[in-house]
Amino acid sequence: MKVILKEPLVYFLLLSGLLFFVTTFFQQESDNSQEIVVDRASLLGYIQQKTKVVEQDKLIKMFDTMPDDKRADWVNAYVREEALYREAQALRLDENDPIIKGRVIQKLEFITKEYSEAILKVTNENLEQYFEKNKQDYYIEPFVTFTHVFFNREGRTKQAMLSLASEKLHELKENNVPFSQGAQYGERFLYHVNYVERTPDFIASHFGQSLSDQVFALKTVGDIWQGPFESEYGIHLIMVNRMEKGRFPSLTDVSEQVYQDVQREQIQSNLEESYKAIIDTYSVVVEDLSE
User: Fold this and answer.
1) pLDDT digit string (tens) for 42-101?
2) Which among 146, 162, 159, 151 is positioned nearest to 212, based on CA atoms?
3) 143 by DSSP, 3-state: which?
4) CA distance 66 to 76
5) How far apart are alpha carbons 50 and 107 in whole angstroms?
6) Residue 206, C-beta contacts closer than 8 angstroms, at least 6 positions apart
7) Do the Cβ atoms of 239 and 224 come closer than 8 Å?
8) CA 251 to chain centre
9) End-to-end CA distance of the chain, in Å?
10) pLDDT range class, residue 8, cuts 50, 70, 90
11) Quick check: 271 and 119 in contact, CB under 8 A?
């Protein structure tokens, strides 16, 4: 029990339960007389719940500077919700109802998640350790940007395709045809004419593995036509505009993404610890489940 009570969330939940009990006990007479009391503390708590404003000072300032008509809207909303809730309780609609039970659990999970996020503390050491442990997740794949002129193999022999491609390659070089005008030459390809920052797997999915390997093995990058290259569809003349090798980035390059990932991991870890602390306050008896 000492270990359990060291968990701050358990204190929070126990105090919340105690507050609910005391409030219910002392307001029971008022409830029976159909009286709904809207005090400052209750209304502030209600607004905080609806607006998700965590900072108490910010909440109070927002409330104190609120126009009268806006404050009246909050009062009406609070009264409406409280009246409906009490009526539902009076009709015992909350008893043995899986939907109500699910919503109550969902609300507690939300409170637990808010608490887990509130106690986040991401340090530089956390970032460095997480990055080193999960460096593979941040690997930047190689990519290439190119355009191509295509000649279909249908109705042509391989020699005819190569001869046509050789003539067209000479024409493209002779006329210094730029990247932007490559689409004016050749024949219609099944997929795209221009490929911008595409990975080896993507290129292989459109041209086949062999051509993808050849493209990424090219040493010349710039305004020059190269080829011919053969795919299962035909012959291609290619101008590679840009190529980047695969690499592992530095922590500085991906610090924002790593920070978000560390936050996500800490929230999940805090949630699991909080759930365990709550469960540990109970004695669980699993009876014989067999028929």
Assistant:
1) 888 888 888 888 787 888 888 899 998 998 899 888 888 877 777 777 767 767 777 776
2) 146
3) strand
4) 15
5) 12
6) 190, 191, 192, 195
7) yes
8) 20
9) 35
10) low
11) no
Token output for 131: 């990055």
Q: Enumerate the β-bridge partners of residue 225.
A: 239
Which of 146, 147, 148, 138 lies closest to 246 in space, CA to CA? Answer: 138
Q: Which residue's structure tokens are 């029976």? A: 32
CA separation for the pair 230, 158 (Å, rounded): 10
Confidence of residue 287 (pLDDT cuts 50, 70, 90): low
Residue with tokens 């404003």: 53
Bond prior to 228 in cis (omega within 30° of 0): yes
Q: How far apart are CA 274 and CA 153, in angstroms?
A: 65
Q: Mind listing the domains of the chain with CATH numbers? A: 2-102 (no CATH), 143-244 (3.10.50.40)
Residues 6+ apart with CB under 8 A from 133: none
Least confident of 58-62, 255-259, 274-278: 274-278
The one-letter amino acid at 230? E
pLDDT band at 7 (very low <50, low <70, confident <90, very high): low
- The conformational region for residue 88 under phi > 0 = left, psi -120 to 50 = alpha, else beta, is alpha
Q: Which tokens is 264 given?
A: 């996500």
* The residue count for the chain: 291
Instruction: State the alpha helices, DSSP H only, in 33-152.
Output: 40-51, 56-64, 68-90, 98-118, 124-133
The secondary structure element, H or E, covering residue 18 is helix 8-26
Round the average pLDDT of the chain to a whole number and report it. Answer: 83
